């Protein structure tokens, strides 16, 4: 009798799990983690996302669900059911990414391509997005250049500007991507050495050419706040490249775990190591005396009174990448730089997908 009950329980659990799997194939994760806010058809307490999706599937009026862990109840979630009469444009709220909530939307026909957004096409059970977009339904902009590369897109040198929106950035910004090279993201480019001298407010947001109208031979910096949000979403390696000696020589230096801290730290720069290229190398022009903070003429934490913005240590040491005439150390000697750029390569998955 006990054995019979045991086998019955296993059979029911297996059948229920199989049914849930089929039911949840009718759902997609929605809207880059926006939660729907509005009146609900019903709120139930269930044990998993699968159970919540199943409850919605059994309710003909239910079209979307919000799922959040239940406070003080380990293993239980609050499942909010929303019907199509509730769904109105703009009736949603961005929640803090530290929450483990998510929103899922029912698909009327899981094989149809009509639910792929922004020009995406449904292929092999998923949306294939244009290079500019990503997400389950191509509903959002890419978060860095490598995301387009990971989605199968390839564009060779000299690269093209893409509109980027990292996690935490409210206003997307343009950045040059070379997808052929593992999807590198160019955060600083000095091709013509036009002036990138700027005050604190400008340095935070953007300096240089407008990449929405100028495609090639550009000079720009994506801004400190954009750089901070870009780097905090994953681990990145930075490659600083220079052409010097009147364009007759070139060199590289790589920085591991390249990162900048928030504004309250004056966007302090950190990295785990600096590794010159074995053949054509640059010296490390960033000071090793932490903290190395960003300074401008109107924001100067260490009272260095430098002529140009840049990352400097407490003894005012360091080289500026933003000077009208950039100088960088090569083989122990300061060299006049003709072209300079910093490219980021993401070497981990996003912290929050």
What does it look like?
- It comes from Pomacea canaliculata (Golden apple snail).
- This is Fibrinogen C-terminal domain-containing protein.
- With 353 residues, this protein is of the alpha+beta class.
- Helix content is 15%, strand content 33%.
- It has helices spanning 2-24, 49-57, 145-150, 200-205, 224-232, and strands spanning 27-29, 34-36, 42-46, 62-69, 77-83, 92-94, 102-106, 121-123, 126-128, 133-134, 140-141, 160-164, 173-178, 184-190, 207-208, 219-221, 236-244, 249-256, 259-260, 269-270, 273-276, 293-295, 310-312, 327-330, 333-346.
- It folds into two domains: 21-84 and 99-106, Hepatocyte Growth Factor, CATH 3.50.4.10; 121-350, Gamma Fibrinogen, chain A, domain 1 (Gamma Fibrinogen, Chain A, domain 1, Alpha-Beta Complex), CATH 3.90.215.10.
- A hairpin with a 4-residue loop joins β17 (236-244) and β18.
- The radius of gyration is 25 Å and the shape is elongated.
- α1 crosses α2.
- The strands form seven sheets. Strands 12, 13, 14, 15, 16, 17, 18, 21, 24 and 25 form a ten-stranded antiparallel sheet that branches.
- It has five helices and 25 strands.
**Low-confidence residue ranges:** 1-24, 86-98
Share of helix, binned: 10-25%
Overall strand count: 25
Oligomeric nature of the chains: single chain
> Sheet with the most strands?
10 strands, antiparallel
What is the CATH homology-level superfamily of the largest domain?
Gamma Fibrinogen, chain A, domain 1
* Number of helical stretches of at least 4 residues: 5
Proportion of residues in extended strands: 25-35%
Query: Nearest-angstrom radius of gyration?
Result: 25 Å
Shape: elongated
For the record, give the distance between the C-alpha atoms at the N and C termini, rounded to a whole number: 48 Å
* CATH-derived topology of the largest domain: Gamma Fibrinogen, Chain A, domain 1
Total individual domains: 2
CATH class of the largest domain: Alpha Beta
Structural class based on helices, strands and sheet pairing: alpha+beta
Order of helices and strands: HEEEHEEEEEEEEHEEEHEEHEEEEEEEEE
Mean pLDDT: 82
- Per CATH, which architecture of the largest domain? Alpha-Beta Complex
């Amino acid at each position: 009798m006990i054995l019979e009950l045991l086998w019955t329980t296993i059979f029911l659990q297996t059948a229920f799990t199989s049914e849930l799997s089929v039911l949840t194939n009718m759902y997609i994760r929605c809207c880059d983690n926006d939660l729907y806010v509005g009146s609900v058809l019903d709120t139930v307490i269930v044990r998993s996302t699968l159970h919540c999706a199943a409850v919605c599937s059994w309710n003909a009026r239910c079209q979307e669900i919000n799922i959040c862990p239940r406070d003080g109840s380990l293993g239980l979630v609050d499942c909010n059911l929303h019907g199509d009469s509730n769904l109105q444009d703009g009736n949603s709220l961005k929640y803090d990414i530290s929450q483990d909530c998510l929103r899922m939307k029912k698909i009327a026909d899981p094989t149809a391509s009509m639910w792929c957004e922004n020009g995406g096409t449904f292929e092999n059970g998923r949306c294939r997005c244009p290079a500019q977009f990503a997400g389950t339904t191509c509903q959002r902009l890419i978060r860095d250049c490598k995301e387009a590369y990971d989605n199968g897109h390839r564009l060779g040198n000299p690269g093209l500007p893409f509109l980027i929106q990292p996690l935490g950035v409210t206003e997307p910004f343009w950045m040059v991507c070379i997808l052929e090279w593992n999807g590198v993201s160019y955060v600083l480019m000095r091709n013509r050495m036009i002036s990138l001298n700027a005050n604190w407010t400008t340095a935070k947001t953007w300096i240089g050419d407008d990449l929405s109208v100028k495609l090639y031979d550009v000079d720009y910096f994506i801004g400190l706040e954009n750089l901070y949000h870009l780097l905090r979403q994953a681990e990145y390696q930075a490659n600083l490249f220079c052409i010097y000696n009147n364009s007759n020589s070139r060199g590289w230096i790589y920085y591991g775990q390249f990162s900048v801290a928030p504004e309250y730290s004056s966007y302090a720069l950190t990295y785990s190591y600096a590794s010159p290229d074995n053949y054509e190398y640059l010296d490390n022009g960033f000071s090793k005396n932490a903290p190395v903070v960003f300074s401008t003429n109107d924001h100067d934490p260490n009272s260095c009174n430098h002529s140009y913005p840049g990352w400097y240590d407490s003894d005012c040491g360091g080289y500026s990448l933003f000077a009208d005439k950039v100088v960088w150390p090569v083989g122990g000697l300061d060299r006049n730089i003709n072209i300079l750029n910093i490219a980021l390569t993401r070497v981990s998955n996003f912290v929050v997908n």
